[in-house]
């Protein structure tokens, strides 16, 4: 697969399909009966109280944990029920931005970004670094290729993490609390970058976040995880749910941020 290929799904097609999934941790059920179709090019956010299973869902989607109840399809690949060759193809469909950026402190930015290509391509070392430089330029870090993580701000580390997540041209990007620890201005710039990547590359985003300003700014839809009922309480556009959800708990969650009061309702 050429690194120049832009992977885009058909408009409206289900890039991620979750059917009857139950999330468990230490044999304790977190959320049961999850049924979600996430379309190609959609920005989908998982929201809810701490400990409700948001990050656990990402682990299941990435194949880090297996489920005995339910199925997960990533761009048509079964992430849990496949053989090793199919699981490899499934893993090639996504990139990940971890909360802290997860950059290697002993590597400069170009080396960090190029690292995933070592096991997934036949590129030479210099070719891998060229691709890394291209991805860094896409996130506004051209000229910082030789910098080390300790020389960068928190926002720059997050952008470098995005460049690394994109280096193999995945169809899906998983972001775990992308705005955590960032000031409001930097967080907004990160939201703008996510929207630009979606617009230019057609990538599907699945975000775990508690930042309501980001949710209202970029999410097409959200799923509200409720730890009390162990269920997905509501799914929909955040502006609509904030005002019209049939669940008081969902409306209260959004009401904790006054931003939605000045945002027009989307019909």
Description of the molecule:
This protein has 267 residues and is of the alpha/beta class. A hairpin with a 4-residue loop joins β9 (221-226) and β10. The termini are far apart. The protein has helices at 54-61, 84-91, 109-114, 125-138, 154-166, 184-201, 212-218, 238-244, 248-255; strands spanning 14-25, 28-39, 43-48, 71-74, 77-78, 94-97, 172-176, 204-208, 221-226, 231-236. The chain has a single domain (42-63, 94-259), classed as P-loop containing nucleotide triphosphate hydrolases (Rossmann fold, 3-Layer(aba) Sandwich), CATH 3.40.50.300. A 6-stranded mixed sheet has the order 6-7-8-3-9-10, with helices on both faces. It has a 4-stranded antiparallel sheet with strand order 2-1-4-5.
Explain briefly what this protein structure is:
The chain has 267 residues and is an alpha/beta fold. The protein has helices at residues 54-61, 84-91, 109-114, 125-138, 154-166, 184-201, 212-218, 238-244, 248-255, and strands at residues 14-25, 28-39, 43-48, 71-74, 77-78, 94-97, 172-176, 204-208, 221-226, 231-236. It has one domain: Rossmann fold (3-Layer(aba) Sandwich), CATH 3.40.50.300.
